[in-house]
Amino acid sequence: MMAHSETITLGNGEWDPYQSSTMDGFGYASKIVTEAFKKEGIDVKYNFYPWARALDSASKGKVAGTFLWGYKKEREKHFLYSEPILDVSYVFFYLAERKFDWKKIDDLKDKRIGTTIKYSYGEAFDKARAKGIFEADDSNSDETNFKKLLAGRVDIIPNDLDAGLSILRRNHKDEIKRVSYHEKPVRNTPHYLLISRKHPRAEYLLAAFNKGLAALKKSGRYQEIIKASRNLKE
């Protein structure tokens, strides 16, 4: 029999569509975290902060933890890392009317690719750019890249898959059917829940979350949450 439920508070932030105070279930990553803990009898409340404050509040034990964060070794001093909640995947978006396929970086030869200033799309991509294998067309924002794509000014754009779909739904709803994306990732980065080492039951919370996350995946509910978020027809 499951013990009486307890409630913890986690530091959250704004990263549409993963996390947002204005979205259903606070975004799909928040849904995963909520439901994983719920399977182990733990309810979750969220405090929304600017990202730096979320990390600081968790490191000081003001909240039990925070998410989504990539891995940095120096954070291990203050946090326990969960199993990955999800991979943030960068993929190529393209116009459906212009067929596109790629298997290796050399397949991008002579493509005009919309990129965002100061972004890295992975070591292989960055090296190919430096060698001039393709033409990089820089913009100040991901949104500008999507405008260029829809106008036919670039052939493809690399973008965080989920954030890219969110931009299309929010700003280009009437043209969303014109855009497709290639499932092969340019770059994959695992993101985690960080549990504060200052929490008196840090090890317990970590184990509970990892167990609940595994159960969520086994049941198919995890995949269902992600699929719903990535449905371009919604």
From TrEMBL:
Domain Solute-binding protein family 3/N-terminal stretches: 7-233
This protein's record includes keyword Signal: yes
One Pfam family, short name: SBP_bac_3
Keyword tags: Signal
Name of the molecule in the record: Amino acid ABC transporter substrate-binding protein, PAAT family
PANTHER family in UniProt: ABC TRANSPORTER SUBSTRATE-BINDING PROTEIN, MEMBRANE-BOUND LYTIC MUREIN TRANSGLYCOSYLASE F
Signal peptide range in chain numbering: none
